[in-house]
Amino acid sequence: MRSKDPVKRVIMLTLGWEDLPKSWSIYDTDPLVRIVEPVPALLVETVDGWVLIDTGFNKALIEDIALRRRFHGDFYEIRPILPAYDKDPLLDALDRFGLGVDDLLCVAVSHLHNDHAGGLRHFGASGTPVYIQKRELEFGMFDSVRAEGHGFCRVDFDDPKLNWKLIDGDAEIAPGIGAVLTAGHTPGHQSFVVTGSQDRDEQGYVFAFDAGDLVENFDSELAIGGYIDVEPNDTLEPIRRLKSIAAEHGYKLIPGHDPRVWPTELERRYREIL
Ligand SMILES: [Zn+2]
After folding, report:
1. For the whole model, what pTM was predicted?
2. Model pLDDT, residue 197
3. Among 44, 221, 236, 269, which is most buried by a count of CB atoms within 10 Å?
4. How far is the CA of 47 from the centre of ligand 1 (A)?
């Protein structure tokens, strides 16, 4: 019997890490407490093809001395960490599944922070559709000085060859994959809902990304520490909305940067969950 499932596989990827004050993830935490958080991305195989969600750091901005000083020199005490080998983390992850940058149905980014948008440079030449919330791209492009002060690197996404697909609110971006506007962390941050498998009776997933970094953001409803143009407590609204979507469908809610949730180096930085 032919499968009716729109989503065939879901693979969680860790493309690097960042060593940062925990107060970025949990508002009003002791700023001296530090945490090493994974840099997340997703590969989802749908009936129409593979979808990549988020793209990790721009390796060049970390490894080149001048670019690192320019873009990461004094970035809120956040230290970027790449995997300990010379390959590009995103290209390596795609390669593990037999994919190149030209093989994807589409790409989506949760938001334009440098730890999520740094791999977009691979998709200017390929012409792959890139889904983003309209207000996120507008903030990054038209308010770029202020955006850089909040961790956007315009060089990551200001490419006239990128094939942007602008979303304004909630939308389906591929079979079985829905984008949900969860603004607050950034002006056009989006999270993603991925359907499960009816054939195998497996649940779906709600991927919060930076609407909530850690399990405790959701379990204890704690405001996030990184936000733009809202008050810290306003970030609880998207947290509660994602919880209610997960509860309504019986889906598992995955926070964006929790080291206990995303694949570890020992797991070779990827884990198939569906
Ligand atoms: Zn972020």
Report:
1. 0.97
2. 84
3. 44
4. 30
